[in-house]
Amino acid sequence: MAYCFIGAVYISGTGVTQDLRNASVLVHDGDVSAESRNLIYLFRQPYFNRIGTFSGQHEGLTRLDDGASMLLLDIPEDFSQTLRRGARPVAVQMLVDTSNVTMGYLASAYGQRIVDTYAQNLAQQAARRAGLDLRTLPSVENATRVWYNPNLNGHWFNAIGEWLTMMTVLAVLLPATALVRERERGTVEQLLVAPLSSMQIMVSKALAMTLVNVAGTALSVYAVMLPLGVPFAGSPWLFFATTALYVFSIAGLGLAIGAFARSSAEVGMLVILIAVPMTALSGTWTAPEAMPGWTRWGLQISPLYHFIECAYGILLRGAGPGVLWQSILMLSLLGAVAFALAWLQLRRKLS
Known about the structure:
4 strands, about 65% helix
């Protein structure tokens, strides 16, 4: 638990990033001119790392196939002459390894932006030499305002996402393990003779595991996330209240697993069958808009999907109950269904 709430969150918040960093580039400069060198210079760190050159297309493709480089930049022999004439565009070829789709897409997009900016600067220089006033030329200005994460810091998203994933696994695993260990140790007979109903047994175990997970969440937030710069824009009371509601809701799934399983090994396998689809159908790492249409129905029955709205809304946007009431209501309904299933299964086992 110390690793899940502290170690995993810290690693995701510091060492893991979805940004393009030091993508390896091999260059073929067929022109060897000032213009080609200026373009090559733009492919530099922190986004790109020029690791060498290649002499021809065959060598470049071979090194791309071997994984020695992510991107090949091929500048033709008539690069500078075509630029000076200005009669037609000059083609610069980029070959990108997209085995890793995300990094390949970013490398292609960054490379395209570099070439477009270079071409725009050349066009502006030519216009100035022709005596044109650039202020009189038609232009479109894209005024962009970035909300909630002004610096586009991906570590905020990674740290919160890792905490959500770890807490979900533990919130299902711990109640299930606690219940099945009662049978493995033989202490379930003490519960059978005690003046306790099955609902009282369930609620007591769910409350205990909820307190443990909320305490771990406090460690994640105040010992890891806040020191890493992750904002806490909303109400701490609302945040921990919705966290407790979420953990208590999915603890019912853990209790249902514990009532059904016969050993700790079965608990581990069943938790995987529950936690992995719940995480995949939550939008934690994949935007719901990017999922197929039929999978979006599964989002509505995933408690994590609704809790994500609360977690990101409170931490990053400072949202209140008036904004999050639908997510809180769905968490309550799904928790009631999970507890009803666990109660039926546990009552059958105890009887």
